[in-house]
Write a structure and sequence with these properties.
The chain has twelve helices and no strands. The protein is mainly alpha-helical and about 250 residues long.
Length: about 250
């Protein structure tokens, strides 16, 4: 019995360490090649086409692996334990991670499409052109108000209950398909919890690694620390006040 517990503890440590190494490699890429990776995020409105879209999605995926993947360690570790000592457990864990990242890649595609449409909308509206500098303030207000919505708290509660989540979505049959679907569902609730905070990167600068670290830490605390849920309302108030102040200055 003690030997089994030691093996489980070792496997859990190995899993957490592997995710940590992947995330660290992504952070190093963002730090070393931030300008090259995230230039497309700032300027993708000026270009389009498959090569540029792939470059944008590639940089977005690296950013997601750095910021969001570590916040899902409790759920992935819980899934590892429930999957048991099966020979294909590593493959199932990889499918969960791939499903999770697939949802965030889809979000990146939406952001890319939005970035192509936004300049066209601004160009057609004198009202928007006069207030273009207030965009960052509007993003802060959007993120702040969303912190108080029932959808935010529903998604946050799902993310904060990894055992209940895995038991609710893991059926133990058609294992590979269900593992991937588990990752997809987890990604959907994670997006529902964090999308507004992720948008703040377009206000503070997507290539700013310090701000990205700060936002990643805030999302990790919200999702995984015992008192993290109580952070949502004060953070929402702070963001809303900051956004209003930026609008007033603009």
């Amino acid at each position: 019995m003690i030997g089994d517990l030691q093996v489980q503890a070792w496997h859990r440590t190995l899993l957490v360490g592997s995710i940590g190494l992947v995330s660290l490699a992504a952070w190093l890429m963002l730090w070393q090649f931030g300008a090259a990776l995230h230039g497309p995020v700032h300027h993708h409105a000026a270009a389009s086409g498959p090569p540029f879209a792939l470059l944008f999605i590639g940089s977005w995926t690296v950013m997601t692996m750095a910021m969001m993947l570590p916040t899902s360690v409790p759920l992935i570790a819980t899934f590892q334990t429930i999957a048991g000592p099966r020979p294909d457990r590593s493959l199932l864990i990889a499918l969960v991670v791939l499903g999770y990242l697939a949802i965030w890649v889809a979000v990146g595609l939406v952001c890319y499409a939005g970035g192509l449409l936004l300049p066209q909308l601004v160009a057609r509206s004198a009202w928007l052109q006069d207030r273009e500098s207030a965009g960052a303030g509007l993003l802060l207000i959007t993120a702040g108000v969303y912190q108080f919505t029932p959808l935010k708290y529903r998604c946050l509660d799902k993310c904060r209950s990894p055992l209940g989540f895995v038991l609710g979505y893991w059926r133990g049959e058609h294992e590979r398909r269900n593992a991937f679907r588990l990752g997809l569902h987890h990604g959907i609730f994670c997006v529902g919890c964090c999308w507004a905070l992720m948008l703040l990167m377009f206000a503070v600068g997507v290539g700013n690694v310090v701000w990205m670290l700060l936002l990643g830490a805030v999302m990790a605390v919200e999702k995984n620390v015992s008192w993290g849920r109580r952070l949502s309302a004060p953070l929402g108030a702070l963001l809303t006040i900051g956004g209003l102040a930026m609008l007033a200055a603009a």
